[in-house]
């Protein structure tokens, strides 16, 4: 009997111990619960921070995605030798900066350039790239109106110095050659190619348009200073638009002036046609020293064969790229108008070969 009681007491003690152990093992679970409840609170504290970062990034993404619209005057006709590289430069800049580019081709007609400016302004773009051929008097009131509407204006190829100075702080810059110096450099290169004092020379260019004869005057002055007898012949608007029409005109001039030793021009498309003029007149390479402007496949062919002695390199690709970049920089970073001289050299039969492949690609 006593033994049974003893066993009962031992059993009850074991049960009590087991219950105490069970209680102790459950205690951590009860203390862990508040920690588990706190976890969601930690996530809730981090979530607002993520939202703040998202809000910070949202305006930047919106700015990056905002498309800039630019209208750009290219000058001549699409794809012609004096326009192609400029167009390609502008397209490259637009692609790099996420810009919508609208190209305008005028066939070098100053009045059409004015009409194109009005069309561009009516579209309320972010910026317009113009050429100075119509002159400052023709552009002034229109540029004033566009600037008052918040449209960024800049220029290329042919400068508008007074308007550039007036609106430079608002992004009006210039990308192109120093026209007079470019023509003068071309004339000096022609003299270096073998001309002498007393030789007869012709400068064939757009003399009836003062804004487009600045570079031609530089060429004329360089030849005259070297002692040459220099005559001026005006390029008509028809020839300006379709340069192949110059071939019979100059062929006839050569027939009337068999002792002519040089022809100079600062018209890119006419430069490309001058080898055809000499061939049509029965002239051999070197009989008449030719000085021109720009680089095209036909001009390179003329350099290679020796018909062209010098061609001014005004780097048309940059005249396309830089104005588009100018508007982008002014629009986004308030950069003032930059005046960039893109023409600093001439190409001759001695130095054209390295750049010829780039010309074939429409880059130079």
**C-alpha geometry:** elongated
How many helical elements?
13
| Mean of all residue-level pLDDT scores | 86
CATH topology of the largest domain: Rossmann fold
**Biggest beta sheet summary:** 6 strands, parallel
Class of secondary structure makeup: alpha/beta
Annotated CATH homologous superfamily of the largest domain: Response regulator
Order of strands across the biggest sheet?
2-1-3-4-5-11
Strand content: 15-25%
3D structure, described in words:
There is one protein chain. The protein is α/β, with parallel strands linked by helices and 364 residues long. The protein has two domains: 65-177 and 316-343, 3-Layer(aba) Sandwich (Rossmann fold), CATH 3.40.50.2300; 179-313, 3-Layer(aba) Sandwich (Rossmann fold). Helix content is 54%, strand content 16%. It contains 13 helices and twelve strands. The strands form two sheets. It has a six-stranded parallel beta sheet with strand order 2-1-3-4-5-11, with helices on both faces. Strands 7-6-8-9-10-12 form a six-stranded mixed beta sheet, with helices on both faces. Helix 4 runs parallel beside helix 5 (161-167). The N and C termini lie far apart (119 Å). 43% of the residues are buried.
Topology:
Blueprint: H1 2-65, E1 68-75, H2 84-97, E2 99-105, H3 110-122, E3 127-130, H4 136-148, E4 152-156, H5 161-167, E5 174-176, H6 179-192, E6 200-205, H7 214-225, E7 229-234, H8 237-241, H9 246-256, E8 260-264, H10 268-280, E9 289-293, H11 297-305, E10 310-313, H12 316-333, E11 339-341, E12 345-347, H13 356-360
Parallel strand pairs: 1-2, 1-3, 3-4, 4-5, 5-11, 6-7, 6-8, 8-9, 9-10
Antiparallel strand pairs: 10-12
Helix pairs in contact: 2-12, 3-4, 4-5, 6-7, 9-10, 10-11
């Amino acid at each position: 009997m006593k033994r049974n009681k003893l066993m009962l007491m031992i059993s009850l003690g074991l049960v009590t111990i087991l219950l105490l152990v069970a209680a102790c093992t459950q205690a951590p679970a009860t203390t862990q619960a508040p920690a588990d409840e706190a976890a969601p609170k930690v996530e809730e504290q981090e979530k607002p921070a993520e939202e703040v970062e998202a809000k910070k990034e949202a305006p930047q993404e919106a700015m990056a995605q905002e498309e800039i619209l630019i209208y750009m005057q290219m000058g001549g006709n699409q794809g012609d030798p004096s326009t192609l590289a400029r167009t390609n430069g502008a397209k490259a800049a637009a692609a790099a900066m996420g810009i919508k580019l609208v190209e305008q081709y005028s066939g070098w007609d100053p009045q059409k350039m004015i009409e194109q400016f009005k069309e561009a302004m009516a579209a309320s773009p972010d910026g317009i790239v113009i050429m100075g051929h119509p002159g400052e008097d023709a552009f002034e009131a229109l540029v004033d109106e566009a600037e008052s509407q918040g449209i960024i204006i800049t220029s290329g190829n042919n400068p508008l110095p007074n308007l550039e100075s007036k609106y430079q702080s608002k992004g009006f810059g210039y990308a192109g050659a120093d026209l007079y110096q470019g023509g003068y450099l071309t004339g000096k290169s022609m003299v270096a190619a073998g001309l002498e004092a007393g030789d007869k020379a012709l400068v064939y260019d757009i003399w009836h348009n003062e804004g487009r004869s600045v570079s031609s005057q530089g060429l004329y002055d360089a030849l005259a200073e070297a002692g040459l007898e220099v005559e001026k012949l005006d390029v008509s608007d028809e020839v300006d638009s379709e340069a192949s029409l110059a071939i019979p005109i100059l062929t006839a001039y050569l027939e009337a002036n068999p002792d002519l030793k040089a022809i100079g021009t600062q018209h890119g498309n006419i430069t490309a046609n001058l080898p055809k003029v000499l061939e049509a007149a029965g002239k051999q390479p070197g009989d008449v020293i030719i000085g021109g402007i720009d680089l095209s496949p036909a001009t390179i062919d003329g350099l290679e064969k020796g018909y062209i002695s010098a061609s001014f390199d005004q780097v048309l690709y940059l005249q396309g790229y830089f104005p588009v970049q100018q508007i982008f920089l002014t629009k986004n970073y308030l950069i003032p108008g930059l005046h960039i001289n893109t023409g600093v050299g001439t190409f001759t039969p001695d130095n054209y070969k390295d750049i010829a492949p780039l010309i074939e690609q429409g880059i130079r």
